[in-house]
Automatic annotation (TrEMBL):
Superkingdom: Bacteria
Span of the signal peptide: none
Parts of the chain that traverse the membrane: 12-34, 40-61, 73-93, 99-121, 128-148, 154-173, 185-206, 218-240, 247-267, 273-290
Domain EamA: start-end pairs: 15-143, 156-290
This protein's record includes keyword Membrane: yes
PANTHER family: ACYL-MALONYL CONDENSING ENZYME-RELATED, EAMA DOMAIN-CONTAINING PROTEIN
Protein name: Drug/metabolite transporter (DMT)-like permease
Amino acid sequence: MTDITSKPRSIALYDLLYMIGIIAISFSSIFVRWSEADVAVIAMYRLYLTNLLMLPFVWKYRHEFMRLSARQWRLLALSGVMLGAHFLLWMASLRLTTVASSTVLLTLEPLLVMLGSYWLFRTKANRMMLWGLGIALVGSILIGAGDFSLSGDALLGDVLSMLGAAAVAVHMLAGKQLRNEMSAFVYNFAVFFLAATSLAMYNIVLGNPFTGYSEREWGLFLLLAIVPTLFGHYLFNWLLKYMNAAAVSMAVLGEPVISSLLAWWLLHESLSGYQLAAGCFILFGVWLFIRHGKEKV
């Protein structure tokens, strides 16, 4: 691995790319709220269009694709289906609750990954990590209680966001194993395609139309593929080679902050003091967990 400690310019470049990634993923909720299509269709085309943009580079990795074992394909399928479920659940939550509540609840992902790692790999947590888990859970309860007082739909949106966080945690646990065995490109391309295909089957069952969308909708699908997916999620996977994994995972703390500000500016959503307080609980709890985590998850 490249020794970047002796290259200040490289460090500055990686920090810049890291900030670009945080800003990019923060736009995801805005694009979803602007779209009028069914959330399953939005998620499907977001991923298929990402695959289309990556297609010119597939030939370079053809031999690696051909060497994948049946076990690896099964894990890729699990990771892909869970990623598809994550997008479906989280995007649905944005139609029911505020961007602030939905995105801040997604920051529970590292905590859920920790619990999954303990169950699957017997990865242990220290006392400070458990404190972080408890504080974040208190914040989640506060958000749920506050949204329940507003409307049942808002509470349902919170639940969907938390289920989306659980789905992406399973996706990350499967990916943790697979990324040790294959390149980032092969993993991402296969998972994006399998996730999109699982969503396509879901749309067929529901009878959602695949065509007939306006140019504006196709533009939003493409923006979702380019901005939060390629310049966000894929960029973070690439940075894992050059930055500490704990530092990269800190990106989950930046998304709700920037997303909430963007929602306030572009969607005219208000931020209540209650939401801010509960959000701070969650963000501090997740920060505490990541800061004192000894195992990269």
